[in-house]
């Protein structure tokens, strides 16, 4: 393809946008609004996923041991836990460590709470098992269940199930919302291109009559659609970035419920390029779908 031909496509696309300025601005604004809504939801999903991963990395299963446990039984439990894939750390916590933890946790208030505990410590020895992700908790509990010498297992599987359900629900809702918003964007850009096509129907007929190929006619409209999509993507990303930055800075120490929020620069480094690519694809597809019937002369 010659450079002069490419230049013609872009000039023609820009002329068309200028000619239909009001409709083009309305289309860009609507696409921007649509992508902004999608961006807000994406940030919620990304932050929830990051939070779930963070919670997952902090999840611990405590396996409390009986006071009369034998060395052999302890060895069997240790070996069973070592064989579980996805365990990041296995720590033995004796009675003294557990008591010191309570003292540190409650500070001055712990004096009346733990009075007399130094003489007779009621806390059991325990294995504290840290996991890489929430799904591993079930494997740890199953590996420890039924082993001799275990008094009780602090089972956090109910919490894990809730976390996984919330994550999966968000993913499904996100996918549905994504498909709806993409369809809306395709419809809007397609309609904008149709308005241009109606006003240039005779011109297209003449071009076909003098031998212009379908793709020669298509390209200016495809580029016009791409420009509309990219413009909407850039505007929506800019608004999203500054709006999210305010939320990020105002959240207490950038932490919400003990979970770190994703840095706003993630929007510029990742979401911007995804939206721009999406805008190009949406614009191109919307234009191709709209122009098809106008090429039948």
Automatic annotation (TrEMBL):
Pfam families: FtsX, FtsX_ECD. The keyword Membrane applies. Residues 59-153 form the FtsX extracellular domain. One of its GO terms (cellular component) is plasma membrane. Its main location: membrane. Gene3D superfamilies: 3.30.70.3040. GO terms for biological process: cell division. It is a multi-pass membrane protein. Residues 176-293 form the ABC3 transporter permease C-terminal domain. The chain crosses the membrane at residues 23-46, 175-198, 219-244, 264-291. Keywords: Cell cycle, Cell division, Cell membrane, Membrane, Transmembrane, Transmembrane helix. It is found in: Cell membrane. Coiled coil: none annotated. Belongs to the ABC-4 integral membrane protein family. FtsX subfamily. Part of the ABC transporter FtsEX involved in asymmetric cellular division facilitating the initiation of sporulation. This is Cell division protein FtsX. The gene is ftsX.
């Amino acid at each position: 393809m010659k450079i002069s031909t490419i230049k013609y496509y872009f000039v023609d696309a820009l002329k068309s946008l200028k000619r239909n300025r009001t409709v083009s601005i309305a289309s860009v604004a609507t696409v921007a609004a649509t992508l902004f809504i999608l961006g807000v939801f994406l940030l919620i999903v990304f932050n929830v996923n990051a939070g779930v991963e963070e919670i997952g990395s902090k999840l611990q299963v405590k396996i409390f041991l009986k006071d009369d446990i034998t060395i052999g039984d302890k060895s069997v439990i240790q070996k069973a836990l070592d064989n579980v894939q996805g365990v990041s750390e296995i720590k033995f916590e004796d009675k003294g460590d557990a008591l010191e933890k309570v003292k540190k946790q409650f500070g001055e208030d712990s004096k009346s709470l733990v009075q007399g505990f130094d003489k007779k410590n009621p806390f059991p020895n325990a294995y504290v098992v840290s996991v890489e992700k929430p799904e591993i908790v079930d494997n740890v509990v199953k590996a420890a269940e039924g082993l001799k010498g275990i008094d009780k297992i602090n089972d956090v599987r109910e919490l894990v199930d809730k976390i996984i359900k919330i994550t999966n629900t968000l993913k499904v809702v996100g996918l549905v919302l994504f498909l709806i918003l993409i369809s809306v964007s395709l419809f809007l850009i397609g309609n904008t291109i149709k308005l241009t096509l109606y006003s240039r129907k005779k011109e297209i007929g003449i071009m076909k009559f003098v031998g212009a190929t379908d793709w020669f006619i298509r390209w200016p409209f495809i580029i016009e659609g791409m420009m509309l999509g990219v413009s909407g993507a850039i505007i929506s990303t800019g608004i999203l970035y500054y709006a999210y930055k305010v939320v990020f800075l105002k959240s207490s120490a950038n932490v919400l419920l003990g979970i770190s929020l994703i840095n706003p620069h993630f929007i510029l480094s990742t979401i911007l390029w995804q939206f721009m690519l999406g805008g190009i694809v949406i614009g191109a597809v919307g234009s191709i779908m709209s122009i098809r019937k106008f090429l039948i002369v």
